[in-house]
Amino acid sequence: MRKREDIQALIGQILALVRADEARVDYWSRRELAARLGENVITQNLCTSEECVRLHVANGHRHGSAITNCLDVDSLRELVHRAESIAGSVPDDPEAMPVLGPQEYPEVPPRYYEEVSNLTPVDVAGQIADAIAP
């Protein structure tokens, strides 16, 4: 999982490429562990991770957005190009609202727990065994 500073740098890198009047970047990441069972034994172990960014841009009342899970420089350039191209090819949105200015947000409890992130397939198998033993 990226650190806050790394995510902010990534978002800054994307915003530096944008030529639209307004822009917003959404970032998220996830890591998933799953195990499939058959006849009380693990038959498949799955572990995936992914990072994504979505870019929303606006030029006046024309909006466009694009999403990618490839975060290299060329892919980020393409992301910006796609979002801005979409915004340039759609009609004006008569209900368009401007992007909110800077906001103050309350402190949010952590949603990331290191001990969960560090679970191994062996840990998961042990927890499954505990659950199905009865």
Give a quick precis of the structure.
The protein has 134 residues and is of the alpha+beta class.
Low-confidence stretches: none
- What is the β-strand count? 3
The helix/strand series, from N terminus to C terminus, equals: HEEEHHH
Task: Walk across the major sheet and give the strand order.
Answer: 1-2-3
Describe the structure.
The chain has helices at 4-17, 73-89, 114-117, 121-132, and strands at residues 22-38, 41-59, 62-68. The chain is elongated and about 60 Å long. The mean pLDDT is 90. With 134 residues, it is an alpha+beta fold. It has 4 helices and 3 strands. The longest helix is centred in the middle third of the chain and has 17 residues, at 73-89. A 3-stranded antiparallel beta sheet has the order 1-2-3.
List keywords for this structure.
32% strand, 134 residues, elongated, single chain, 3-stranded antiparallel beta sheet, 4 helices, alpha+beta
Draw up the topology in text.
Blueprint (H helix, E strand, L loop, with lengths): L3 H14 L4 E17 L2 E19 L2 E7 L4 H17 L24 H4 L3 H12 L2
Antiparallel strand pairs: 1-2, 2-3
